[in-house]
Amino acid sequence: MVRYFGFLANRVCGEKLPQVYRALGMDKPEPVAKVCYAQMVKQFLSRDPFECVLCGGRMVYRRAIAGLNVEG
């Protein structure tokens, strides 16, 4: 119930949370840096997903087409 009607409600969250942090004597948390797909793959597989396996050049992402798959 608190999530929808209390200080975590979407409408007042930005206004009320700083007051809650002050009341608890806490610092406002720093925003987490966003991580893109290529960075996640580099961390997980230790390989750049946009590096060409043949020539080592950098591939450029253009677009994704919905509905297509590897099998055709």
* Strand element count: 0
Structural class: mainly alpha
Low-confidence stretches: none
Q: What is the share of helical residues?
A: 25-40%
Measure the end-to-end span.
Answer: 48 Å
State Rg.
22 Å
Order of helices and strands: HHH
What's the total helix number?
A: 3
Q: What overall geometry do the principal axes of the alpha carbons give?
A: elongated
Report the sheet with the most strands, covering strand number, pairing sense and barrel closure: none
Strand content bin: under 5%
Query: Overall mean pLDDT score?
Result: 81
Protein name: IS91 family transposase ISSbo1
Keywords: Plasmid
Question: What are the main properties of this structure?
Answer:
72 residues, mainly alpha, 3 helices, 0% strand, elongated, IS91 family transposase ISSbo1, plasmid
Structure description:
This protein is an all-alpha fold and 72 residues long. It has a domain at 4-45. Helix content is 35%, strand content 0%. It is built from three helices and no strands. It has helices at 2-5, 13-24, 37-45. It is elongated. The model has no long low-confidence stretch (mean pLDDT 81).
Q: Secondary-structure map with pairings?
A:
Blueprint: H1 2-5, H2 13-24, H3 37-45
Task: Report a brief summary of the structure.
Keywords: Plasmid. This is IS91 family transposase ISSbo1. The protein is mainly α and 72 residues long.
